[in-house]
Write a structure and sequence with these properties.
- By secondary structure, this protein is α/β, with parallel strands linked by helices.
- The chain has two domains: 3-9 and 28-43 and 92-254, 3-Layer(aba) Sandwich (Alpha/beta knot); 48-87, no CATH class.
- Helices cover 35% and strands 20% of the residues.
- The strands form two sheets. A seven-stranded mixed sheet has the order 6-4-3-2-8-7-9, with helices on both faces. The protein has a two-stranded antiparallel sheet with strand order 1-5.
- A hairpin with a 3-residue loop joins strand 3 (114-120) and strand 4.
- The longest helix has 20 residues, at 235-254.
- The chain is globular, with a radius of gyration of 18 Å.
Length: 255
Amino acid sequence: MDPASSFLPLGDFTARAPSARTLTCSTSAPTGLLNFVLAESALELVPKEIRKLPAVVSDSKRREADASAILLDRSFHHSAMARLKDSEKRGRPDLVHSALLSATGTPLYLQGRVKVFVHTYCDLVVDIAPKTRVPKSYLRFRGLMEQVLLGRGDKLVTARPSKLTDLVRKAVKPDITVGLSVQGRKMELEDLAGRLMSADNACLIVGGFPRGHFSAETLSVVDELVRIHEMPLEAHVVTSRLLYEFEKAVTAVNH
């Protein structure tokens, strides 16, 4: 699979074939940038210690691919994953896909006001170029991520080894970093969006895993830990709600 065929620039809405064009429409200059980080994401290749287990071998044969080159996926590898540390947080690339679709489908993203990063459980950072469209088909997304995690990405999406602390402190260097968790203090969405919007370079961290809580390392880079609902919400729901409120806050200021 060619990674370049799976990501399309957001300006090319009508194209039927893959294109490498950049966005040509003009937009007003951003008043502030929101760095969106999907942290500790359940996105990784099958770990070495379970590659020879029956569930993984069966999936590998079905896909005619080496076990080392396919994504860990609980839908197919559930029985094998019981041997993994933090297994409840891993093997959900579909969750990452849904959250990325929610983030990259927003007007803010089209306008270049949101920069998206995916930090994985295994301490890789997937860097998605601005205004790049995530494949809507999960199968295409899966194939692309497998190529990227194997180091075969292109200029639109790349992966590199990096701890979350290095990403936030050395690369993003935000004015404020907010983490979303049910363990945080309650804050209304409107208030949180206004706080993020008031910063020149804000960072929002959302968990990219199905169960559990942020690690101590993730918490170490967070200035404020907040919750927006009494119930635990899935990553794509949190992403959609927060980015919509952020968009409203930006629009209100600009008008």
